[in-house]
C-alpha cells in the first residue's frame, strides 16, 4: 500500500438546513444549525483514512478551539496530523454552508489560517515520503499548490488535483499533473466557458479539451451522472450508483479520497473509479466529514450493486 499525503485546507463548517436557498438580497427562514468538521483537504484526508489508506496531512489552523477540534478529528479518523500547524494571529478557516432539501448546497469559505500554508511548510510534509499519492485542492495559496506538485515529482509521487473552488490555472501547473478531477463548474471555468449542465454527449469532447491543458488523466465528476475519464488510452463513462441524495457536501472530496486509496492499493484505474463512485454514497448522510462512509460500508455497497 502506497502512502497518501494530503496538502490542503481544514475548515469548521457552519451548516444550516433550509427548504429553499435564498436569492441575492432575500432572507429565508432555515431549519437546523450544526458545526461539522470540513475543509476540502481535511475531508479528502478523512475519506482516504476511513477507506483504508495510510494518510498524512499538511495544513494550517488557528490557535483556537476549532483548530484543536479539527486536528483531533483527523487523528481520530487515523490521519497522521503531525504536519497540521497551529498558527498564531489568524483564525481557523470556516465555511458557511446552506443545504437545501434536495441536497443542493451553497458554500462560502473564509480561508483564515489555510491562506498561511506556505511552500516552506512542504519540506517536512514530504519527509520520508516517496512513490505515494499526493492530493491537492485550491483552498490553499496557488504558489503552495504549485510547489507541492514540483516536490511530488521529485519524490516520484502521483498527483491528484481537485481544482476546487473553481479557478483558472497556469499551464505549468496543469502540465505537471497526473490527475485533474474537476466537476462541471470547475471544468467550464478551466476552459473559460460559461457555467451550465454538461450532458453525457458533451463529456468526451470536454474531457479531451481538458486533457489538452496538460494533465495525464482527466476525471470529469458529473454528480448523479457519474464520472467521465479521459487519457491517452481511454475515454469512458462510469455511471453513478443509484442513491438518494440528502446532502452533497464533500461528495467530490470523498470521491478523491477513495480514488487515491484504490490506486494506492495497486487497483486499476477503472476499478478505482468504480470504488470512488461507490464512496459517493456519502451523499445519503448530512455533513462533510460526518457523512464519509467506512471501507466496510463501501465494499458492501459495491458488492450489492456490481453488475
Ligand atoms: O467540499 C466541501 C467542503 O468545501 C466543505 O467541507 C467546506 O469546508 C468547503 O471547504
Which helices and strands appear, and what pairs or packs with what?
Layout: E1 3-7, E2 11-18, E3 33-38, H1 40-50, E4 54-62, H2 65-76, E5 80-87, E6 93-100, E7 105-110, H3 122-125, E8 133-136, H4 142-154, E9 158-161, H5 171-174, E10 179-180, H6 184-190, H7 203-211, E11 217-221, E12 227-230, E13 235-238, H8 251-264, H9 269-279, H10 295-305
Parallel strand pairs: 1-4, 1-8, 2-6, 4-5, 8-9, 9-10, 10-11
Antiparallel strand pairs: 2-3, 6-7, 11-12, 12-13
Helix pairs in contact: 1-8, 8-9, 9-10
The structure holds alpha-D-ribofuranose (RIB).
The site of alpha-D-ribofuranose has 16 residues, from strand 2, helix 1, strand 7 and helix 8.
Amino acid at each position: 500500500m502506497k502512502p497518501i499525503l494530503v496538502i490542503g485546507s481544514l475548515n469548521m463548517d457552519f451548516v444550516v438546513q433550509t427548504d429553499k436557498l435564498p436569492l441575492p438580497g432575500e432572507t429565508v427562514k432555515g431549519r437546523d444549525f450544526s458545526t461539522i468538521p470540513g475543509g476540502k483537504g481535511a475531508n479528502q484526508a478523512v475519506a482516504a483514512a476511513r477507506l483504508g489508506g495510510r494518510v498524512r496531512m499538511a495544513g494550517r489552523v488557528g490557535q483556537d478551539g476549532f483548530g484543536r477540534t479539527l486536528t483531533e478529528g483527523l487523528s481520530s479518523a487515523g490521519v497522521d496530523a503531525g504536519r497540521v500547524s497551529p498558527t498564531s494571529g489568524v483564525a481557523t478557516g470556516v465555511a458557511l454552508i446552506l443545504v437545501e432539501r434536495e441536497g443542493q448546497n451553497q458554500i462560502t469559505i473564509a480561508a483564515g489560517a489555510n491562506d498561511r500554508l506556505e511552500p516552506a511548510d512542504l519540506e517536512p510534509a514530504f519527509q520520508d515520503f516517496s512513490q505515494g499519492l499526493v492530493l491537492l485542492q485550491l483552498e490553499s495559496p496557488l504558489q503552495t499548490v504549485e510547489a507541492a506538485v514540483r516536490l511530488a515529482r521529485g519524490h516520484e509521487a502521483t498527483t491528484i488535483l481537485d481544482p476546487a473552488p473553481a479557478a483558472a490555472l497556469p499551464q505549468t501547473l496543469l502540465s505537471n499533473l497526473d490527475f485533474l478531477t474537476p466537476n462541471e463548474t470547475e471544468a467550464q471555468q478551466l476552459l473559460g466557458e460559461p457555467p451550465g449542465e454538461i450532458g453525457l454527449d458533451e463529456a468526451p469532447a470536454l474531457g479531451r479539451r481538458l486533457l489538452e491543458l496538460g494533465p495525464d488523466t482527466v476525471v470529469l465528476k458529473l454528480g448523479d451522472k457519474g464520472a467521465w475519464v479521459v487519457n491517452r488510452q481511454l475515454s469512458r463513462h462510469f455511471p453513478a450508483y443509484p442513491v438518494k441524495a440528502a446532502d452533497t457536501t464533500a461528495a467530490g472530496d470523498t470521491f478523491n479520497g477513495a480514488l487515491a486509496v484504490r490506486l494506492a492499493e495497486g487497483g486499476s484505474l477503472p476499478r478505482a473509479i468504480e470504488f470512488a463512485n461507490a464512496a459517493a454514497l456519502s451523499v445519503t448522510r448530512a455533513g462533510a466529514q460526518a457523512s464519509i462512509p467506512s471501507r466496510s460500508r463501501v465494499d458492501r455497497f459495491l458488492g450489492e450493486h456490481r453488475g
